[in-house]
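[PROTEIN RECORD]
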Amino acid sequence: MLIAKERPGVYWDYDASGVLWGSDSLKQVGIAALCEKGEQNRVYSIRRISDGKAVFGEDSIMAGMIEKALINGASGVKAVKAGTEESFDYEAALAALERENCPSIDRPADTFARLLAGAAGEEPDPVRRRVLAQLLYHLGRWIYLTDAADDLAKDQRSGSYNPLPLRFSMQEGKLTEESRQELAQTMDRSVERMAAAFELLECGVWQPIIESVVYAGLYQVGNAVLNGTFHQRPRREKYPERKAGHGDA
């Protein structure tokens, strides 16, 4: 698990094994983060710990994450400086990753997730701010992956960037069943982490509404998208079996 504090109250974390892709001999990690050194929005290919320190600074958070990734089995890191604490732009960093047709679903999803997590910075209470950042981060990640799945057929027709066919196996223009299940699992992990953060929040009159979304609604939407039924008229008697329980938090 890699954990970094970007600025007061904004944290993010991920399991390093969840952002590895490719063959066993070519597993890479993508990172977009804030640091003082390096060229903003340039995608650096880093294969040695010393190179990460040379580009981004000996004591930078970015260099530390690169070191942990390489030590934990990554053969290389695609690193993008999103800016500094004074001036940052995760949206541009996301665009940089997409321009190179990034085959990792986690690199662009992580960057989009950080954009949403940044909204937690408006919360004055530091503890609540950290919890909100975690919830919003995983909501952003879930939104990005779900949107990519929903747009898959359209993006293939138009030739637009979509990380899913670059990462997963396709058959007749659709994800194979094995790939669909793998994508469902990574989407569900984000919902489970949202649920864990939600259990630490007090949301007043919004509590039951948000609870319904986190513990049922997101699973229903994700299931419909992956099954290709999201744009069909829903039938009340058919609901997905996947549903979070409070034990998932």
